[in-house]
Amino acid sequence: MPEQRPSRQELIRRRRRSGFVGRRGEMSAFRDNLARDPSGDDAQFFFHVRGNAGVGKTSLLRQWEAVAREQGAATVYLDDGVHSAVEAMAQIADRLGLQGLPLRGFDKLLATLRQREHEAQSARGTQTPGEGGGAAEPPAASLPASVAAQVGLVGLGMVPIVGALAGAVDPHQVAQGADGLRAALGARLRSHDDVRLVMDPVRALTPVFLEDLAEAARRPPRLVLFFDVYERTGPVLDEWLRDIAFGDVHGALPANVQIVLSGQGRLAARTWSDWLDLVTEVPLEVFTEQEARALLALRGVTDERVVEVVLRLSGRLPVLVHTLAQARPDSDRTVGDPSGTAVERFLKWETDPARRTAALALALPLQFDEDIYRAIAPPEAAEQYAWIRQLAFVTDQAGHCRYHDVVRAPMLRLQRLQSPTRWRAAHNLLAQTFRTWRTEREESLPDAEHWGDAAWREHRYNETYHLLCAEPRRTLPDALTETVHACEHGSATARRWTQLLAQAATDTEDDALQAWGERLTDVPRDDTAAVLATLDALLAHTGMDTAGQVHARVVRGRLHRRAEHNEAALADLTTALALEPQHSDALVERAFTHEQMGNAAAALADMDEAIRARPDAWRHVVRGHLNLAAGHRAAALADFNHALELDPDQEWARASRAEVYRTEGRHEDALADLDRALAIDPEYTWAHAERSRCLRDLERWDEALRAMARAADLDSETQWHRAHLAGLLLDLGRHTEALREVDRALTAPYEHGPRDRAWPHTVRAWALHALGRETEALADLDRAISINGDYTPSFSMRGWLLWEAGRLEEAERDFDRALSDDQQWAWRFGGRGTVRLYAGRYDDALDDFTRAFTIQLGITDAETEIARPLVELLRQHLPANRAAVTAAIRLAALLTKQVQWPGVARQAASVLALRPSLGLLTGSSQILARVATALDNHPLDGADRKRITWTQKLLTPLLHALAPWRPPMPRDPD
Question: Which of 72, 157, 606, 619 is the most buried (most CB within 10 A)?
């Protein structure tokens, strides 16, 4: 049965019920667009409504939302209550969930983000608060010396800032600083997925958000996202919205999703200039006289003298026309003298004194709900909340109401000037209300988690605003110190606090506040620099007390150090310590700065002082890593032991001690510590990976693979442990599986520095080489070298492939480059020796082979025992047996990169199938036997034993493979 269309009369009744008049062109254009096929060329999907305050932008958006819902669309309306892209996605998910369109995958990942942020915060929960308002540091991972300076410097709550700051500094410095920070945070969190999530939540969340949005958009014909008050939210949402609407960095936006922005000014050219041709601009002006008269008529205001007064007073500004018309004045006498204040005009026809008092009082808070209303409304108006919500200048968003700025500003000014005493008392009452709610919230939160809790921050935010309004000069120093704390928590929170000071400055017209409001809002809008600029402004002018200055310098010093601006970091931290010599956090930060600058002694001296000031487990672990970086292994182990005495469940300390045990050959002790760490946290990714390394050293290959596979599964969205799993499979000669895993790893975003971004390509190249796919292997090595020209293993691998391709000069250059930084790799000398042998430079080849055998086998007379006979043999047989010699050398190069040799007999047989001469086989067999004999007579210990044992394992199957071709031994005459 066809759907029955509404009658014209029903449409008229709907329009009358809405109370909306005017803007007919805008309404028709939006309605017509909704009727079009979303994938059609004539369909618009991105609207920008703009105009001055009070012209009716919000009213138009609300009408558009109603129209969209009438036509079956799902809608979400957001205003300036969002302060970051993450908050925007979270609120969109909440609103769609209420409409039966849940974003389940996003909600789950967002919950994980909140939990991981909580875990990072809770790392400080067992520590006493930092001196001078400073914050204690979280634990971090065990790191090599080059990154050890980053350990523990996450400064809880600062993580979101780091990703933003990375774009503001030199890319090389960012790569190094951000890599170290990721590694440090990775030791505390469960996996690299978690590190990526906390470090860069927008990039981690948005693809999942878009996937779920696409699924949700399958049901309704349209899904419309409204972003109101965009002049305030644009600075933090611009790039994200541009990327999801027009780019593909995060994924695809469904075709039937429509986006509507509404703000006072034009879109920022630096963000939107390339896409303005796809933006439908909807400029709004004041009402025409006809539109204003229509609204007045709808409200029953028809007396011409009254209409003339309203038109004159309102200037046809829609919000004022609507407000003045709402009470339906019945004569020009009730309108009165037009010289009265705007506030009186808003409430002119409200005769109930209690209601008038309540309406004025509700202008004081930035936003309000029923609890705030009851706290400040006069008792006789306690039940009038429903009335206040329906006033024309009140907007209601998800239970939180606010006055239109055009109305709120004159109401605030009236109250402040009429009675400064009542003004202070009212704001103090509101501050006390929010303080009570804040302290109630603190009962369920450890001290270290206050700033990480959104509800606590909201109460503190409003409490501070009202204290600034009540007593600006007395409250300002504390508010500035709070802004430092906000900077620690992230760019979105820092921006809110700077906006708080600016708003209080506007509402109080206090000179000191206005000066600070200008300083703190006159900073770059780009998140990449906003936090540092805010701290610069705070420290460039007097205003904070000593504790606040110390805290600000510690926070800024941390940011400078992460960007590897070491001198600036050192200056800030030294100044902080001059103000407060025993400030433990400043000492820790300066210790890491010294270590990053290569001054190990100064770093350890600062950590000694930090531990004397606050002797906790975390600081002992940090000092342990600094001792490791300085080569003081025994001192490091003592620190890890002490940390575990203080806190036996410190999994970071256990994993750190396990790494020391492993490098000392105490593998069972290491495994015991790792098992304990995993009992505390079964999803501790780094512990699984370290356990795999221990098992690998013990040649428990299957267990090592399972442990690394578990780490890779926990780290599902990055390449790091998946690439390590591929490398382990490569070591075991399982080339097809290694290729599959590294391909999976390379589909994930790069999460590490240039060295680690190059490494997976070298793993892939060698797997391809082993499978005979040489052209692809060379392309991967070229890619690795283009990513990082300092990663020498890529050059040595490419040298082998170029030799095999006959490109001898290029191959030698690559081996020279590989050996320029590290001459302890036998494999590299062997490669260059092979190249020189094929080039006919036999003396040079002999030198390289001698070095290779000396390093690999530890035989001091390697030149005469092995290298010279080998060079002579190859020199003699290379022309006639070139194919077989080349295949044999290729096989040796592959096998010496492995620790296991599955199918080695079959691979040797493939070389023998090339029909090498009997003399070559005999000479090769004799050389192999000489190597085996030399190894049997060689005293072995430690790492040498393991390396040589692997060599013996290689020689044994090769000797067996060659046995059928060995010359017969002479018979005994007896």
Answer: 619
Position of tokens 């003004």? 423
Residue given tokens 């701290």 in the structure block: 535
d(CA 549, CA 539): 7
Write the DSSP symbol of residue 124: T
Distance in angstroms (rounded) separating the CA atoms of residues 897 and 190 = 31
> How is residue 832 written in tokens?
């260059």
Backbone angles phi, psi at 917, to 5 degrees: -70, 155
93 DSSP assignment? H
Both tokens assigned to 255 = 């075709």
State phi, psi for 32 to the nearest 5 degrees.
Answer: -65, -40
Work out the burial of residue 228: count CB atoms within 10 Å of its CB; fewer than 13 is exposed, 13-18 middle, 19 or more buried. buried
Nearest to 960 by CA among 920, 894, 904, 918: 904
pTM above 0.70, yes or no: no
Sign of CA dihedral 459, 462, 468, 471: negative
CA distance 474 to 502: 17
Instruction: For residue 77, give the 3-state DSSP assignment.
Output: strand
Q: How many CB atoms lie within 10 A of CB 455?
A: 12
**Residue 259 phi, psi (nearest 5):** -120, 135
Tokens read off for 567: 């001198």
- Is residue 175 a contact partner of residue 536, using CB atoms and an 8 Å limit? no
Q: What is the pLDDT of residues 519-543, one digit of tens each?
A: 887 655 556 467 888 888 888 887 8
Q: What is the pLDDT of residues 608-625, one digit of tens each?
A: 999 999 999 999 999 999
- Alpha-carbon gap, residue 344 to 854, rounded angstroms: 97
pLDDT tens profile 247-272: 888 999 999 999 999 988 889 888 99
CB contact at 8 A, 717 and 685? no
- Quote the Cα angle for 713-714-716, to 5°: 60
| Closest to 561 measured CA to CA, from 546, 549, 573, 551 | 573
Grouping H, G, I as helix, E, B as strand and the rest as coil, residue 48 is strand
User: pLDDT tens digit string along 309-325?
Assistant: 777 766 777 777 777 77
Residue type, 311: L
Q: For 778, phi and psi rounded to 5 degrees?
A: -60, -40
H/E stretch holding 401 reads strand 400-403
Task: Give the whole-angstrom CA distance, residue 520 versus residue 498.
Answer: 6
- Compute and round to an integer the Cα radius of gyration of the chain: 36
Q: Give, for 595, the enclosing helix (H) or strand (E).
A: helix 584-596
In whole angstroms, how far apart are CA 926 and each of 679, 837, 920, 921?
A: 53, 20, 10, 9
**CA 73 to chain CA centroid, nearest Å:** 33
Please tell me the number of Cα atoms within 13 Å of 165 on its side-chain side: 28
H/E element, 374 = helix 370-376
Burial class (CB in 10 A: 0-12, 13-18, 19+), 200: buried
Cβ-contact 609, 601 below 8 angstroms: no
The CA distance from 611 to 603, in Å, is 12
The predicted pLDDT at position 170 comes to 40
Tokens 């705007």 belong to 342
Asked if residue 189 lies in contact with residue 120, where contact means CB atoms within 8 angstroms, the answer is yes
The pair of structure tokens assigned to 501 is 């000071």
Strand 257-263 to 74-78 pairing: unpaired
Cβ burial, residue 249 (10 Å; 0-12/13-18/19+) = exposed
Cα separation values, 518 from 371, 500, 575, Å: 33, 12, 26
| Residue whose entry in the numeric block shows the structure tokens 């001698």 | 850
Q: How far apart are CA 895 and CA 905, in angstroms?
A: 12
Report the 3 state secondary structure along 608-674. HHHHHHCCCHHHHHHHHHHHHHCCCHHHHHHHHHHHHHHCCCCHHHHHHHHHHHHHCCCHHHHHHHH
